[in-house]
Amino acid sequence: MQIDRPQGQAMAVPALHEPRNPGLPFDEGWVRRVQANTSAIERRAATLPGRRSVKKDWQAAWLLKAISLIDLTTLAGDDTEGRVRRLCAKAKQPVSPEMLDKLGMTGLTVGAVCVYHDMVPAAVAALRGTSIPVAAVSTGFPAGLSPFHLRIQEIRESVAAGAQEIDIVISRRHVLTGNWQGLYDEMREMRAACGDAHVKAILATGELGTLRNVARASLVCMMGGADFIKTSTGKESVNATLPVTLTMLRAIRDYHDAAGIRVGYKPAGGISKAKDALNYLALIKDELGDRWLQPDLFRFGASSLLGDIERQLEHHVTGAYSASWRHALA
Q1: Backbone phi and psi for residue 22, each to the nearest 5 degrees, phi listed first
Q2: Number of domains present in the structure of the chain
Q3: Using alpha carbons only, what angle is made at residue 146 by residues 141 and 149, rounded to the nearest 5 degrees?
Q4: pTM of the entire structure?
Q5: Is the pLDDT of residue 330 over 80?
Q6: Which domain holds residue 205?
Q7: Domain holding 224: CATH number?
Q8: What is the mean predicted confidence (pLDDT) over 283-308?
Q9: 32: three-class secondary structure by DSSP
């Protein structure tokens, strides 16, 4: 079965902006009622690659869409301002002008650039004059175990430095011990510290133990005002997976049904192949619909994914695969 060609791929589409998620009062009864049928979720996720496929022009269109949804990321201990500037140049021109011309596409950029706090000023300067936001990982990323007042101050300083999005990490112990009130209170305070910056709550799903915990943590973070829920830091042994994604998407759908608010989703870590990106997009379309296939509601947390997509697009145009070194990111 083929999935439809995404709308608006011939040219850049103006950014859409959902209202911020104000959150809801904490409802522990709702949280406790949330369950996850693990075997059914895993079966559904396992069938997706075989049921959904796109070829030729349709595949190229979906891969261009995927590029517009990437948070182009560098989170390495040896990051430098020069590397960040080069990454930002790639964010502004992710595919060569010649290739875009052959594909009938103009104005393509990635969704955002994601960096550590110290690199925020360099990224902001490099992206000045564009609509590409800078996202900063915060709150003692990736472990989230620094003193709480320092985590809150880190958020404030990243916002003051120009970050328009803040990727926070939750305290996993709240989930593992069932302290849902503690998780809610933490999320509310972090959301308040972000001010006008959008907040993405990283659940570190590979460390939460069960899909039921993933579903409950997703709901609590949305109640607490998260604008996005995100799978992983990318530093865990298990990062984004299709079963986890299905669980989180259904939590987003339930929250939208109850509150009327659309919350975004960001899978991160381990998504490095174009074919994997297509699977995620198909699942989003199936579970949440076309509105979530826009940068204000969906992002890939990735870096190497862009290089593989470029290779697939070049193969589509020329019939030959290029060497990976021809598509360096930074």
Answers
A1: -75, -10
A2: 1
A3: 110
A4: 0.92
A5: no
A6: 28-319
A7: 3.20.20.70
A8: 95
A9: helix
Cβ-contact 31, 24 below 8 angstroms: no
Q: Is 53 helix (H, G, I), strand (E, B) or coil?
A: strand
Q: What's the pLDDT at 10?
A: 39
Classify the C-alpha dihedral 244-204-149-160 as positive or negative. Answer: negative
Q: 55 an active-site residue?
A: no
Q: Which of 71, 227, 230, 308 is catalytic?
A: 230
Nearest to 38 by CA among 248, 231, 252, 247: 247
Residue 222: name the closest of 267, 256, 196 by CA.
Answer: 256
| Active site annotation includes 235 | no
Is the pLDDT at 13 greater than 60, yes or no?
Answer: no
Closest of 106, 137, 329 to residue 233, by C-alpha = 137
pLDDT reading at 4 higher than 70: no
Active site residue 118: no
Tell me the pLDDT of the chain averaged across its residues.
92
Q: Which long-range contacts (CB under 8 A, 24 or more apart) does 47-50 make?
A: 48/242, 48/279, 48/282, 48/283, 49/275, 49/279
Q: Is residue 38 part of a domain?
A: yes
pLDDT digits (tens, 9 = 90+) for 161-218: 999 999 999 999 999 999 999 999 999 999 999 999 999 999 999 999 999 999 999 9
pLDDT, tens only, 104-127: 999 999 999 999 999 999 999 999
Measured CA distances, 197 to 167, 187, 200 (Å): 10, 14, 10
Helix 274-287 and helix 304-318, axial crossing angle in degrees, nearest 10:
100
* 283 falls within a domain: yes
pLDDT at residue 297 is higher than 90: yes
In a domain, 266, yes or no: yes
Catalytic residue among 71, 90, 167, 276: 167
**Which of 65, 90, 200, 266 is an active site residue?**
266
Give the pLDDT confidence score for residue 248 in this predicted structure. 98
Q: Going edge to edge, which strands form the sheet with 112-115?
A: 264-266, 228-230, 198-202, 165-169, 134-137, 112-115, 70-73, 300-302
